[in-house]
Write a structure and sequence with these properties.
InterPro entries: Glycosyl_Trfase_fam3, Glycosyl_Trfase_fam3_N_dom, Glycosyl_Trfase_fam3_N_dom_sf, Nuc_phospho_transferase, PYNP-like_C_sf, PYNP_C, Pyrmidine_PPas_bac/euk, Pyrmidine_PPase_CS. GO terms for molecular function: pyrimidine-nucleoside phosphorylase activity. By secondary structure, the chain is of the alpha/beta class. The protein folds into 3 domains: 47 residues, Up-down Bundle (Transferase, Pyrimidine Nucleoside Phosphorylase, Chain A, domain 3), CATH 1.20.970.10; 242 residues, 3-Layer(aba) Sandwich (Pyrimidine Nucleoside Phosphorylase, Chain A, domain 2); 85 residues, Pyrimidine nucleoside phosphorylase-like, C-terminal domain (Aldehyde Oxidoreductase, domain 3). 43% of the residues lie in helices and 16% in strands. The strands form 4 sheets. Strands 1-4-5-13 form a 4-stranded mixed β-sheet, with helices on both faces. The protein has a 4-stranded antiparallel β-sheet with strand order 6-9-11-7, with helices on both faces. Strands 10-8-12 form a 3-stranded antiparallel β-sheet. Helix 5 packs parallel to helix 11 and helix 12 crosses helix 13.
Length: 430
């Protein structure tokens, strides 16, 4: 059946509910170039204000999946697991979690994205390793997962063409932050990528896309239900993004922190956070492991060995491993000192993420070039005690670090007389 796009826009504007046939027609004709951007942007704005039902969101998700190729991972034995984060500051979880899970013999086939604005991207961090290739053909991607049980590559342009077009449109029409469109965007890519099981890391707080836990809970529930509806085992975790995750914010310094964590180092809280996520992923694959059993794979080198296998398989320079834990090498370094005694109460993730971008570690636009050595390394986290003169953080850049930039970091920092504690995992949605 043929529809008129203007009628469909009006239907949603007036609060109507789309049929599967209407959604299929819109997506098919948008990808084909028949429905123009200006009409699709009008529809996105109508959805922004009127929303979509769960059934509509499911139909939209599958219509987007059908707009491109789908990866068939059935030739890989076992339950294939995938993981997605809704984005944050200092989020190097994939760099540790993927090899950790793979070290238990569970295949991890993951496509990741780049950073934009205040959020970092896994691909940019991996590319700070000399020679590492984030592009692989789908047959080579599958072959690597078969061979070593792990691959992390860039998202294929052939998958979910509708999402690529629609996301770019939403980005410039102020229609990004609406739950049905976020959920369908994330889940269409995860479903098309072919894994049997998916862990969703839904970040919430100052440095996250979802600022409050109620919205994060709704998004998580929507995505979990979408995954289950199409036969994917899906679990979501709501995680705290009010402060940066871990100590490093940047690219190469996040690789350094990941390598140290994979070698049994790092803070107790961060290690246990990663282990809890790994436990959920392993559970999705039918493997029951305790937290101590999982931490043992960080301590005994099993996870790091798997990480190295992936780097070598994707053309990373094996001689570079010795240099991955070296201090950042930039023209300018500035230490931020505590100006009062007390306890760190806040390190505002959004402000710190934006500052890292300004230092050269991120992009304001997609065409910006990243400086892999630029970034921020924290010495203290929320809840820790400080004395006057203690170093709280160091800023690294190959451009002059101005007084204005230093002031920006200080604005992100709150020191109080009483210690506070923040949980990393807030809820699990099944």
């Amino acid at each position: 059946m043929t529809y008129r796009m203007v009628d469909l826009i009006q239907k949603k504007r007036d609060g109507g509910i789309f049929s599967k046939a209407e959604i299929d027609w819109m997506i098919e004709n948008y990808v084909a170039g028949i429905v123009p951007d200006y009409q699709m942007s009008a529809l996105a704005m109508a959805i922004y204000f009127k929303g979509m039902t769960t059934e509509e969101t499911a139909h939209l998700t599958m219509a987007m999946v059908a707009s491109g190729k789908q990866i068939d991972l059935s030739s890989i034995s076992g339950v294939k697991v995938d993981k997605h984060s809704t984005g944050g500051v200092g989020d190097k979880v994939t760099l540790i979690l993927a090899p950790l899970v793979a070290s238990f013999g569970v295949p991890v086939a993951k496509m990741s994205g780049r950073g934009l604005g205040h959020t970092g991207g896994t691909l940019d961090k991996l590319e700070s390793i000399p020679g590492f290739k984030i592009e692989k053909s789908i047959p080579d991607f599958i072959a690597q997962v078969k061979n070593i049980g792990l691959s992390v590559i860039g998202q294929s342009d052939d998958l979910v063409k509708a999402d690529k077009l629609l996301y770019a449109l939403r980005d410039v029409t102020a229609t990004v932050d609406i739950i049905p469109l976020i959920a369908s965007s994330v889940m269409s890519k995860k479903i098309a990528a072919g894994s049997n099981a998916i862990l969703l890391d839904v970040t919430v707080g100052d440095g996250a896309f979802m600022k409050n836990i109620d919205d994060a809970r709704i998004l998580a529930r929507t995505m979990v239900d979408l995954g289950k509806a199409v036969g994917r085992q899906t679990v979501a975790v709501l995680t705290n993004m009010n402060q940066p995750l871990g100590l490093a914010i940047g690219n190469r310094n996040e690789i350094t922190e990941a390598v140290n964590t994979l070698n049994g180092k790092g803070s107790k809280d961060f290690r246990e956070f990663i282990a809890e996520l790994a436990q959920l992923m392993l559970e999705l694959a039918g493997l029951e492991k305790t937290i101590p059993e999982i931490l043992e794979h960080l301590d005994n080198g099993s996870a790091y060995t798997k990480f190295k296998e992936m780097i070598i398989a994707q053309s990373g320079d094996p001689t570079a491993f010795e240099n991955l834990t070296e201090p950042l090498n930039t023209k300018y370094t500035v230490g931020i000192k505590a100006e009062q005694a007390g306890y760190i109460a806040e390190e505002k993730a959004y402000n710190i993420g934006v500052l890292a971008m300004k230092l050269g570690a991120g992009r304001a636009t997609k065409s910006d070039k990243i400086d892999f050595e630029a970034g921020i390394t924290l010495s203290k986290k929320v809840g820790e005690a400080v004395k006057i003169g203690d170093t709280i953080a160091e800023l690294y850049s190959n451009n002059p670090i101005t007084a204005e930039l230093i002031a920006e970091f200080k604005k992100s920092l709150v020191i109080t007389n009483e210690a506070v504690h923040q949980k990393e995992i807030l809820e699990v949605v099944r």
